[in-house]
Write the structure tokens for this entry.
Amino acid sequence: MADNKRTLKFKIYRHDPQDPSSEPHYDTFEVQDRPYLSVYLAMEEIQQKQDQSLYYDICCRSNVCGSCAVNVNGQPKLACKTQMKDLPDEVIVEPLRYFDHIKDVAVDKGRWFMEMSHRLKGWMHTDKPFNEKIENIQKEDDRIPVYEAERCIECGICIEACGAAHHDPEYLGSAGMNRAYRFIIDTRDVRALDEFAEQLFTESGVFGCEAMLGCRNFCPKEIPLPYHFGILRRRILGRILLGKK
Ligand code: SF4
Ligand code: FES
């Protein structure tokens, strides 16, 4: 239960890499606890009432756009979803370390997701001519697994939580593997598995996973990433070892 009398301390990472006079440091702010106070709402209050220069990313405020991911006490989380009632009186808010830093706790995830999508050619490949009057209907059993993978909100938390991704900047990580899986299982996509070989049949693809399961532990949408990984690996090993299509 939230103790509304709590005075919360926020130690927030500050740095503007564009400003040569800016030195990385932490600023500490106090916010009074209240019901339903999230890390995002606390940062908004700090920005509005204490320091207008505080820079963070926010968009939907409701767990659907992925933009607000930060490290809270060392763990990657969505600031808008993370409730203060579940945290101690003192929290440290830092940017995700994996991605290019923009300012304070904001990072550039868009570039990484765009490059990943280009590497995988992450869009539908079909030889059917597009006709807006005819729906391309899938059987339920075919579309439900696609929807499950499509729930990814590109928050970058699985990449931040992945030791392998921090060791190998080329590693596609769970978000990349989930994107590849989404098109490989889609019955409307005509690509053969071999067309993903250069990106997936490698140490920076499915063989780069070290099974530390940070992705599973922190994905805010609880996408079954290790399961999707397992299916990809089984199919790829079947292709490499047994010549299966
Ligand atoms: S798979 Fe989960 S943790 Fe990774 S980017 Fe998508 S929603 Fe975020
Ligand atoms: S602001 Fe969109 S997920 Fe948090």
